[in-house]
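ESCALATION

Customer reports they have been waiting on this structure for their group meeting. Please prioritize. Original submission:
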Amino acid sequence: MRADYFPFEGGYCKIRTARRRKRAVKKDFEKQLINLHRERRRLERLRDLQPMVQLPEPRQHGWKRTFVLCSSIARSEHAPFWEALLAKINTVQYCENRDFAVHNVKQMAQYASQRLRTFTHPRNEDAACLTTAERRHFAYANWGFGMRYALKKTWRYELRIMPNIVTHVRRRDEALERQYEQLEHFIDHHALRHLVLKLQDGYANAQLPERRERYPFKQKQLHKIVAESRR
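Update from on-call: job pushed to the front of the queue and completed.
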């Protein structure tokens, strides 16, 4: 070794500490998760860009719920005005069940509410579609999460559930679907979905993977253990 050689020349040490090495491994793992999420989004965009193909026969795919004019307004002379307004503020929801009930973890039915479209401000671009006559029927209202520019009298419209008839479907690319399924299987098999969402959105809104019990027969009655073994 040369006598004039100094390993710390430049004011820093090139040897990384254990903490820095551990941090580098974590950052590399996070970068791999972000690239995994970007690849998943890229495949989803490619699936959405596939052309639509007409079905030989129309078929029903679940149910849809939308607003329609109530019977009294539909028979009045102002029906065209309210029909034109409905085309601008109408909303549609789709569900496989006719009752539009969503069952949570406790198997309790929760019925999702549906409202007409609202606007943030009458001068914003989203409310530019409203005419002067239509704006007279709008006002600010408190919707729980803030003030919204909404329709004052909503009783003129009512919800109606009708079959969702599908006439066109998106063309299926087998190679693309195979790549997407392999990526989804990799994320679910290694329990990475909640980590990817946490890095992307700042919080994990996905369910954590179930932990295996160390003693599966602990605090279980004998007849339940025998019933589970016979399944």
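Sent to customer with the following note: The longest strand covers residues 52-69.
Escalation resolved.
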